[in-house]
Amino acid sequence: MSQRDIKGRISSVQNIRKITRAMEMVAAARLRRAEQRIEALRPYAGAIRRMTRQAAEAAGTGELNNLPILRERETEQRVALLMVTADRGLAGAFNSQIIRAGIRAADEYLAGGKEVEYYATGRRGDSSLTFRNRTPKASWTGFTDRPAYANAREVAERLMAAYVDGEVDRVEILYNGYVSPLVQEVRRETLLPLQQATILEGTEADDEGAEGPSGHHALVEYEPDPVDILQRLVPDYVEISIFRAMLESTASEHGARMTAMRSASENAGDVITDLTLAMNRARQAEITQEIMEVVGGAEALS
Q1: Which of 6, 33, 51, 43 lies closest to 217, judged by CA?
Q2: Residue 142, by phi and psi: left (phi above 0), alpha (psi -120 to 50) or beta?
Q3: Rounded to two decimals, what is the model's pTM?
Q4: Are residues 75 and 198 in the same domain?
Q5: What's the burial of 294, exposed, middle or buried (CB within 10 Å: 0-12/13-18/19+)?
Q6: In what order do the strands lie in the sheet with 170-180?
Q7: Is the pLDDT of residue 216 over 50?
């Protein structure tokens, strides 16, 4: 390879490194904003989850079956899987790990003789499922960089309608939970039926502030009765759970892209170093060749 060719490759890699560095900085700025949105949402989301869980415990399993949105099916034949992905790539394994987890979950249900309906947010999830001949029943795109509550409400309404109308007997969501810019973990949660929802497991964060001075949970009297309260709380719970998953996914996406672009920039630097060494060797070889030609010409003249 000539010096000219190597110089051209070095110039191309340098241009790529400029782009990856710019994308890393953009992802870092967006990540900070996404982290702030998650922190702002957590108290409200925790309160909704805590109130819903407490009302469900007060109502009892028998009362929950009196409302369509709360009714638990005797047999689960159709399962809805909502996969939260991104509209864009260049984020390492961010999108692929959700698709793989969703496919594994679907295969488990299919092996048990159940039917699976796919739902997806983000172009990557929609296109990946379609490519695998698992076309989503519904998909939503165009907002994964900065999801709004209205987007979560639209998705929640579609899934709740499918559950109430008997199209599905169970609703699960899979998304990338944000741990740190370097770590994103795949989370799989049950949204409906409420009796099996992840919300009933409870967390310390959800219970924060729910205890009295003695450290015991405060007694709550419901007016109207818990079932009526749940009828209003459950839609909010589903919406806020999906919105929280979207925000977690957005932060995870920016963190994954920042990490991937940093790695790409470092790799580009290594390639530039190797190409520079190759160019120096080529230059030395050309100089040596010219010297030998000069020496050979001088010997011929003498």
Answers
A1: 51
A2: left
A3: 0.83
A4: yes
A5: exposed
A6: 138-140, 115-121, 78-84, 170-180, 183-192
A7: no
Same-domain pairing of 241 and 141: yes
Residue 287 and residue 156 in one domain: no
| 83: nearest Cα among 139, 31, 164 | 139
Give the C-alpha separation, 262 to 20, whole Å: 7
In degrees and rounded to multiples of 5, residue 138 shows phi and psi of: -155, 150
Share of the chain above pLDDT 90, in %: 56
Query: For the chain, what is the largest distance between any 2 Cα atoms, rounded to a whole number of angstroms?
Result: 115
15 and 51 share one domain: no
Domain count within the chain: 2
Q: Are residues 138 and 212 in the same domain?
A: yes
Instruction: Please enumerate in sequence order all residues whose Cβ is within 8 A of that of 101, keeping only pairs 6 or more positions apart, or say none.
Output: 174, 186, 188
For residue 15, what are the domain limits? Answer: 3-20+262-301
The reply to whether 73 falls in a domain is yes
pLDDT digits (tens, 9 = 90+) for 165-209: 999 999 999 999 999 888 999 999 999 888 777 766 555 444 444
* Domain match, 191 and 254 both: yes
Instruction: Read off the pLDDT of residues 264-273 as tens digits, 9 standing for 90 and up.
Output: 999 999 999 9
User: Does the structure show a pLDDT above 50 at 287?
Assistant: yes
Q: What is the pLDDT of residue 86?
A: 95
> Is 25 within a domain?
no
- Residue 271 corresponds to which tokens in the numbers above? 């390639």
**101 in the same domain as 45:** yes
**Phi and psi for 175 in degrees, rounded to 5?**
-155, 165
Decide if 143 contacts 182 (C-beta within 8 A): no
